[in-house]
Amino acid sequence: MIKINLLPHKKIKQVDKAVTRLRALVIVVIVLVALGLGYETVHIYSMKSALTKKAAATTQMLDVLKKKAAEAEGYEKSRLEVQQKLKTIQELNKRRIPMTPLLNGVNAAITQNVWLTALSVNGPEFSITGIASDSRKNAEAFANALQALPTFTNVKMGDIKDISKGTKERYSFTLTGKLAGYEDLPPATAPAPAPAKKPAPKKK
């Protein structure tokens, strides 16, 4: 087949220039797009790296904060335990019954006609047994003297029995009372009974 170029020579040159310009323009656009995509890719990778480092730093900071929070919780728990122990000690000190006021009060009220045979204390309450000579009124006077002291309250005379032998009068007595200003101690809680063991089944 034979091709014949019917276009004028000038027209051919113009077409070649236009094609060349178009090619250059396409190449420039491609290069610009490639540069843009490369820059965007680098920017994305840079942002990803920065965010990864920031996430790692945030995780590390959270771990430190969690550790500090756990330590603070432990300190708070210890503080509450110490406060509870101090409160218990203060309560026990408040309820503790010292023997000194009791013995000092008994010593101040007793006379030469009265001597004691037993003294028992249960919390702030106490009981006394003793012997009075010459008259039962000496035992009653001892109880009244205890009641008159600010150390004691609710002093009550119990039985007075005549235990005289021969010509000497002797009277045994019991009295109860309470130290003023002291609270009753709570009753001790009895331990729960152990569950009864079931008998082992008999062997056939």
Structural description of this entry:
The protein is of the alpha+beta class. The protein folds into 2 domains: 88 residues; 81 residues, General secretion pathway protein M, EpsM (Gyrase A, domain 2, 2-Layer Sandwich), CATH 3.30.1360.100. It is built from 3 helices and 4 strands; from the N terminus they run ααββαββ. Strands 1-2-4-3 form a 4-stranded antiparallel sheet. Helix 2 packs across helix 3. The longest helix is centred in the N-terminal third of the chain and has 87 residues. It is rod-shaped, with a radius of gyration of 53 Å. About 4% of the residues have low confidence.
Strand order of the largest sheet: 1-2-4-3
Determine the number of helices (DSSP H or I, runs of at least 4 residues): 3
Distance between the termini: 120 Å
Structural class: alpha+beta
Major sheet characteristics: 4 strands, antiparallel
Number of domains: 2
Percent range for helical residues?
40-55%
Overall pLDDT confidence: 77
Question: Strand-residue fraction?
Answer: 15-25%
Total beta strand runs: 4
Sketch the topology as an H/E string, one letter per element. HHEEHEE
Rg measurement, Å: 53 Å
Name the poorly predicted regions. Answer: 185-192
Shape: rod-shaped
